[in-house]
Amino acid sequence: MGKGKRLRAQRVKEQAARLARELAPEPARPVSTDDMGGGRLSSYTRREIGKQVYAWMILLSYLEGALDGGDGLPEDLFAPQKPGESEEDYAARIRADRLVVETQAMAGSPAEQVAEVLSSWVPRSLVSGVVEQLSAEGLRHLDTATPDPDQWQSGARPLLGILCPAKHWEAALDQLEALAASRLKVTGTIAERLDDHPVATVHAAAALVTWLYGRPDIVADPAAARLELAERAGKFGEFVF
User: Fold this and answer.
1) pLDDT at 113
2) Burial zone of 144 (CB within 10 Å; 0-12 exposed, 13-18 middle, 19+ buried)
């Protein structure tokens, strides 16, 4: 086998490995605070900056896929069982909701972008830091706003459904409820669930923050805010990649 074919085969193998996992592998070398020479930052500093950059990348994908692709989705998507709704009707409604969001997700690539960030760059040990950065991004916009937790959840549920893998929906909805009630503060209970459901927690935080960008009373100029977020991700990404 020639060198070109070997490289292509290796790339295919690496891509298959990324698709098979949901989070990146832990770094092979221990994290160090020593600078690496040649103007390169220490692995610790790059890791800390990386938490912010990965959170911004995930949020940008959510903003692209959820807000741009969420028009026309029912407001009660994935809503809890309603008073008077039978178990059979509730189960049928949830199945229909899943079909809606699965069809929507196949129409675009932002869901794949989020999965790529997690599987390529975010090991389990970084997930809590990424969630904290997502929360911090949302808290920037909550200084003068107090969204109703129930309204926040109902608004964020459809956004979550578009980008979160179906197998994580149940855990993500639990974390969505808890994070909305705590105003994005990672409480002890949320942290415990994060250990068991890291991917679901990332998606829950991203969906809640994304919903804020769709509220003109909270984010006055969403387009400018998205541009500023993208500029930050690009600027600081140079130190990470």
Assistant:
1) 83
2) exposed
Task: Extract the tokens encoding 128.
Answer: 């809590």
DSSP string, the chain: --HHHHHHHHHHHHHHHHHH-SSBPPPSSPP--S--BTTBPPHHHHHHHHHHHHHHHHHHHHIIIIIHH-TT--TTTTPPPPTT--HHHHHHHHHHHHHHHHHHHHT-SHHHHHHHHHHHH-BHHHHHHHHHHHHHHHHTT-SS----HHHHHHHHHHHHHHHS-GGGHHHHHHHHHHHHHTTT---HHHHHHHHH-HHHHHHHHHHHHHHHHT-TTTSS-HHHHHHHHHHHHHHHHTTT-
- Determine the straight-line distance between the first and last CA of the chain, rounded to whole angstroms: 31
Q: Which amino acid is at 160?
A: L
Mean pLDDT of the chain, nearest integer = 82
Domain spans, the chain: 43-237
pTM, two decimal places: 0.75
Res 107: pLDDT = 44
Specify burial of residue 106 (Cβ count, 10 A radius: 0-12, 13-18, 19+): exposed
Give the lowest-confidence range in 106-115, 155-164, 201-210: 106-115
pLDDT band at 200 (very low <50, low <70, confident <90, very high): very high
